[in-house]
Design a protein that fits this description.
Structural class of chain B: mainly alpha
Order of helices and strands of chain B: HHHHHHHHHHHHH
Shape of chain B: globular
Radius of gyration of chain B: 19 Å
Strand content of chain B: under 5%
Oligomer: heterodimer
Largest sheet of chain A: none
Largest sheet of chain B: none
Strand content of chain A: under 5%
Number of domains of chain B: 1
Order of helices and strands of chain A: HH
Distance between the termini of chain B: 22 Å
Number of strands of chain A: 0
Shape of chain A: elongated
Number of helices of chain B: 13
Structural class of chain A: mainly alpha
Radius of gyration of chain A: 16 Å
Helix content of chain A: 55-70%
Helix content of chain B: over 70%
């Protein structure tokens, strides 16, 4: 599960970069140029995927 | 738009944003009904509406400022720890889950949704649908109250049977978030569908309204911030728009305070009937 979420985060991050440099034009209004809004949303989703991975990773139990 | 029209739309948007009657629907339908000459498909109209939304988001931030400090710090702490320990941390992640559907849909379907702003009849049809959604949510709540043998009891007693926001499940928060995504269509009320979603998830009315208002802040604020660069395009009367935004914020603050009080015992029915009636009248008059 942790691995899947990290892979998802990487995919979101790559898509964010592609939108930011204008290499990806799917779901855009203009069809040309850069799309910072799409990049921002995908960047946030990448960050949230990493946070989710942190939640599901096995944690060591410290006993006192 | 004239100066007075900007002020009128500002007050209207602020007053109707948090009432479950679709501010966007009103902002699209009413100017057409009043035969105002400006075009809602004009490139300057959406930035104006977004600036008004920023005023509303500011009012909500001020109203729930203590909650937001705890939500933000709770989000950061829980993210780093990888575990939820307090109610505020849980609330922060409920809001994140509830915000994702609208954020994603808003960004990727923006161009299509903006095109709907040009058609007041579409907004009127969605306003009628919004009314039926509100009435439907109350119908289901009343049926649930009958099953719980709460029928005929005092409203505070009925409401006490239902839950508070921190007890909401993440699946329910996602459901409310999906409801919120419906509000990207002009005529569907964001607060209306999220309060209705909250009721379906088992929240009491006042808590559903509180969750709706908290959920509104990041999405309205983010949408506003992203549109800020377009406000500096030539020909946009920024000073007048800002005054409209301040009026929207003041009206939203007063509306939120009223609604939190109203939903202690009030229901969605009056707003549902109002939406059906206004939407139907607009459909008849806008040809």
């Amino acid at each position: 599960m942790v691995g899947a979420l990290i892979v998802l985060a990487i995919i979101f991050a790559i898509l964010a970069v592609l939108y930011l440099v204008g290499a990806l034009q799917i779901f855009t209004s203009t069809g040309t140029g850069t799309h910072s809004r799409h990049a921002l949303v995908l960047g946030v989703l990448a960050l949230l995927s990493l946070i989710a991975a942190n939640f599901v990773r096995p944690k060591s139990q410290l006993t006192s | 738009m004239s100066f007075w029209q900007i002020l009128f739309i500002g007050l209207l948007q602020g007053a109707t944003e948090l009432f479950p009657v679709s501010s966007l629907g009103h902002a699209v339908i009413l100017p057409s009904l009043l035969h105002w000459s400006y075009r809602q498909s004009d490139p300057s109209f959406v930035p104006f509406l977004v600036l008004l939304h920023l005023g509303t988001a500011g009012a909500l931030l001020i109203l729930y400022r203590r909650d937001w400090v705890q939500i933000v710090t709770g989000f950061v702490r829980a993210s780093l720890r990888g575990r939820l320990e307090t109610e505020q941390e849980r609330l922060a992640f409920l809001l994140v889950v509830g915000t994702i559907p609208t954020g994603a849909l808003g960004a990727f379907a923006e161009s299509y949704l903006k095109s709907l702003f040009a058609y007041p009849r579409i907004a009127a049809a969605f306003l009628v649908l919004n009314g039926f959604l509100l009435l439907g949510a109350e119908l289901l709540r009343r049926r649930d109250e009958r099953h719980a043998r709460l029928e005929g009891r005092a409203r505070p007693e009925q409401e006490a049977h239902y839950g508070e926001v921190p007890r909401l499940s993440f699946r329910a928060a996602l459901l409310v978030g999906l409801c919120q995504a419906l509000a990207l269509f002009p005529g569907i009320s964001r607060s209306g569908v999220t309060i209705a979603g909250g009721l379906l998830a088992g929240l009491r009315h006042q808590e559903a309204a509180r969750f709706s208002f908290l959920l509104a802040t990041p999405i309205i604020g983010a949408a506003g911030v992203l549109e800020v660069p377009s406000l500096f395009a030539p020909g946009i009367p920024l000073g007048q728009y800002l005054l409209g935004a301040v009026l929207a914020g003041l009206a939203a603050y007063a509306s939120a305070r009223f609604l939190v009080r109203y939903f202690r015992s009030g229901r969605l029915d009056p707003y549902g009937i109002y939406c059906v009636a206004l939407g139907a009248v607009a459909l008849l008059l806008l040809r």
